[in-house]
Each structure stands twice: as C-alpha cells, then as structure tokens.
C-alpha cells in the first residue's frame, strides 16, 4: 500500500460501522482510510460523506473494540483498489479481496479502483452467442447470452445455492472459444457451511482452477457485503477487457447485499423508502448490473447471473422488482416444483430471457430451436389449464387430448426440467430430450413447428396412431 497522505489522532463519534472525524481538510469522497486501534490492529474503510465540519467514514471490518480517543486515522489520496492478476484463478478470497486460501498474497500485474468505470452506451456491442450451462430449462428455454444479465429469483428454502454452484461449475462456451472462459463467483452473507459447500463443489467438479471465489460470510460486517460484488466485477473487467476472456459473474445473494445497504443507510439516518430500503437502491444496483456487457473492439465479455431470494415469495418486493427493471429477463424458481422433488425447480412460464431471440437458431444453436422453444412453452401453458380443469371435474372426465397433455406435463417436469445436480447436458442433448417429450403429443397439436421440422425430429410412440383416432373421434363429437 502506498504511503499515507495524512494521519490524525482521535475520532469524534462512532455508530456501528460508521465513524465521524472532524478537522481534516482536503479529503475526497470515496477515499481509502486506514484505522489503527489502540491495540495496534489495522482496519480499513472509505469516505462516505465530506463537509466543511466533518467526514463520515465506513469501516469495512466493523468498529468493535475501537476506543475513539486513542484511534489513529490515515487518509490516502485514492479510492479502494485491489491487486489484479491472472494468477487469481483457482484462488479463494474474502469479501474485500484478501486471500483466505493460505496461498499467500497476489502478485499484482496492475491495481484497479473497485468502483470501476461506467461504460458509455455508445461503445457497447449487442450481446451475441450463448453460454451453455448444461441445464436444459436454461439452455433451451431461457438461453443465457454472452454480455447479458439474467437474474435468478428464488425464495427461502429453495436450492438456489445448489443451482448457483452447478451453473458456475458447468458453464462453458461452445466451439473453438471454450478455453477462453472463466467464472467469477461472489457469495454475500452466506453461512459457513454454504461457503464450504461452494469450495468443495468446485473441487469435485474439477472447475476450481477456472473459478475465482469471493466469500463474504454472514458473520462478516455488513459494509464488507457492499464491497464484495464491486471487487468481483473489478476482477471480471480486468480479465474481460484487458485479457480478452469471456467472464461469467455469479453473485449470490443480492438480497443480503440490499439488506446490508439498508442497514448502513439506517445507521446514517437517511430517510427510508419502500420497506425501509434507501431511495437510491435502484441506482446503486444499476451501478453493479450495468457493468455487464460487451465492448466494441474488445474480445472479452462480462455476463452476470445475480441470484436473489424473494422475502415471503413476493416478486413485487423492492429487491426483485428493481432488479427486474435493470436486467434482461429472469429465471424464477418454483416452490411447487420443489415440493414435487424436481431439481432444478425452474418455473418455465414466468421465466424469460429477453436477449435469446437473436442468439438462437441457425448459426447459433439449431434451426428448430426458436420454434421448439415456443411450442414447449405453449404446450406447458396448456398443461396448466388442463390441470385446473381436472381439479374441478376430475381427470376421468377429461378428453383424450387433455389426458395426453397431462401425461406430457408430468414427463416434461420430471425428465426435461428435472435433472441431477451433477448432470451436464449439451445443447444437442437438451434439444433431443425436448423432441422426445414433445412426441407424446399428436402431430396436430404442434402448431408452432414447421412441417419439415416435424418430419425430421418427431418420433411418436407406437400407440400414437390409435391416440390420434381417439382424438379425432373426440373432436367430431
């Protein structure tokens, strides 16, 4: 660390992670601060507010055990920076970028401000090409595109951590660029056993050497939670725009991040907005999410998969609500599917990837992908309708065609949406699985498919002809 710009003895006031220092001229906003307690221990922080009378400082490690009158404060003429190097791959860091894997400090190639630099929209390139996650419900139905930000909306008790680890372990680029792909994984406010699970999962899958892991535990100070995604995204920007890599950033749990933001805002005495969150939470989240994308003239890209838990399963809660405004779609997890024992419990109907339409089909995945996706979506929506009718009149009163939809829905949920948390399906396997299940329906129901696509891929079961006759008789009646 560079030599301190100035040092002062004594602190005016302490309030949780906040510290007020008076009589310090020439200090700038967001400036890095070093706090030396009376026992010699060092802590760090940053300047939050500057006025003629006082300076407000956030302490990253918390203020427990600090004697205000005997504390020395050093101000540096720069914001918080972290050392960056490709050697960070395969390493584990805490929430502020300090190594915790026992492998020593990072030898930096360069240092960067963790707040990043906003991208001018003029230099942004439109996201293209997909990232294969190995999960059929994402790859086929909600395709993740390079440069996209696609959040996962979960809830308490649902396996979002398991899904996050699976995506990070299995994600890859198809074709020749497969070796130019890395994952930055940022976990915020998680329990110790979850942190151990993430490390173990990446080691078992063999993906650890391609992952940079940042872990902020629930026991860590809330201010560290604010820094963690910024540190992770700074590393991602370095790898993407200076090293030419395609980077997937997985961030979990953004609700913990927002609650830390609320806690600090309340400690500062700010006027709260919806549900006590600060009024600037939208712009704060945007400064994180908008760091994803592709830049014209640069080879690399940053793709984000932020994961958040919806309090009380409420999708209108401020955190998912504001996230939905900023990002390009959402993947929604279903408590109903989870109760059926289906993993991953991805609810197809409310889920959406807004950028997939221009990056699937001929030249990207396969010619029939766009029509197959729409046909599966429409057929599954019909399943929901038929189940509602069956609940009222009973399944035995349904027509043969409605019974076929019930069978399709059951198999679709169990065999297409459902898969093992270690099962890594290629795009070709997902497409084949989709056609296999879609073939449970009669040809006449495949209204979104082209005749040549049906001729090529449709393989009905042996009893399909007899089913067709029954359904034709049903229509005639």
TrEMBL record:
Compositional bias (Basic and acidic residues): 466-477
Domain ATP synthase A/B type C-terminal stretches: 359-458
Name recorded for this polypeptide: V-type ATP synthase beta chain
CDD domains: ATP-synt_V_A-type_beta_C (cd18112), ATP-synt_V_A-type_beta_N (cd18118), V_A-ATPase_B (cd01135)
Keyword Transport on entry: yes
Keywords, in A-Z order: ATP synthesis, Hydrogen ion transport, Ion transport, Transport
Region Disordered, residue ranges: 456-477
GO molecular function: ATP binding; proton-transporting ATP synthase activity, rotational mechanism; proton-transporting ATPase activity, rotational mechanism
Family the entry assigns: Belongs to the ATPase alpha/beta chains family.
Span of domain ATPase F1/V1/A1 complex alpha/beta subunit N-terminal: 13-77
Lineage of producing organism: Bacteria, Pseudomonadati, Spirochaetota, Spirochaetia, Brevinematales
ATPase F1/V1/A1 complex alpha/beta subunit nucleotide-binding domain segment(s): 134-353
Task performed by this protein: Produces ATP from ADP in the presence of a proton gradient across the membrane. The V-type beta chain is a regulatory subunit.
Pfam entry (one): ATP-synt_ab_N
NCBIfam families linked: PRK04196.1 (NF003235)
């Amino acid at each position: 660390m560079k030599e301190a710009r100035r040092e002062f003895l004594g602190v005016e006031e302490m309030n949780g992670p906040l510290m007020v220092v008076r009589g310090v001229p020439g200090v700038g906003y967001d400036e890095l601060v070093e706090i030396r307690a009376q026992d010699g221990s060092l802590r760090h922080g940053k300047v939050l507010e500057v006025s003629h009378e006082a300076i407000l400082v956030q302490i990253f490690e918390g203020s427990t055990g600090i004697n205000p009158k005997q504390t020395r404060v050093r101000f540096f003429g720069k914001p918080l920076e972290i050392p960056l190097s490709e050697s960070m791959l395969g390493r584990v860091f805490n929430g502020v970028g300090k190594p915790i894997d026992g492998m020593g400090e990072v030898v930096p190639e360069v240092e960067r401000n963790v707040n990043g630099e906003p991208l001018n929209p003029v230099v942004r390139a439109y996201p293209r090409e997909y990232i294969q996650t190995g999960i059929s419900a994402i790859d086929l139905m909600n395709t993740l595109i390079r440069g996209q930000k696609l959040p996962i909306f979960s809830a308490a008790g649902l396996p979002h951590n398991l899904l996050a680890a699976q995506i990070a372990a299995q994600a890859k680029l198809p074709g020749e660029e497969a070796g130019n792909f890395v994952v930055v994984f940022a976990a915020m406010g998680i329990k110790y056993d979850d942190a151990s699970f993430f490390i173990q999962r990446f080691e078992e899958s063999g993906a650890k050497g391609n992952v940079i892991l940042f872990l902020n535990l629930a026991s860590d100070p809330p201010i560290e939670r604010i820094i963690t995604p910024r540190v992770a995204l700074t590393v991602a920007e370095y790898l993407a725009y200076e090293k030419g890599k395609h980077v997937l950033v997985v961030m979990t749990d953004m609700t913990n991040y927002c609650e830390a933001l609320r806690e600090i805002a309340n400690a500062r005495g700010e006027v709260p907005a919806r549900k006590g969150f600060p009024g600037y939470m939208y712009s704060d989240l945007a400064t994180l999410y908008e760091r994803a994308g592709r830049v014209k003239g640069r080879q690399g890209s940053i793709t984000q998969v932020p994961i958040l838990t919806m309090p009380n399963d409420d999708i209108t809660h401020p955190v998912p609500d504001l996230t939905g405004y900023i990002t390009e779609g959402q993947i929604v997890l279903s408590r109903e599917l989870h109760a059926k024992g289906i993993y991953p419990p991805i609810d197809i109907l409310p889920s959406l990837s807004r950028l997939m339409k221009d990056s699937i089909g001929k030249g990207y995945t396969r010619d029939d992908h766009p029509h197959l996706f729409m046909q599966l979506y429409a057929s599954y929506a019909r399943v929901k309708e038929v189940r509602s009718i069956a609940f009222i009149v009973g399944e035995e009163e349904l027509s043969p065609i409605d019974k076929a939809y019930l069978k399709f829905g059951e198999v679709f949920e169990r065999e297409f949406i459902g898969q093992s948390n270690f099962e890594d399906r290629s795009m070709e396997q997902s497409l084949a699985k989709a056609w296999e299940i879609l073939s449970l329906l009669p040809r006449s129901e495949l209204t979104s498919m082209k005749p040549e696509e049906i001729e090529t891929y449709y393989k009905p079961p042996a009893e399909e002809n007899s089913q067709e006759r029954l359904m034709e008789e049903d229509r005639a009646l």
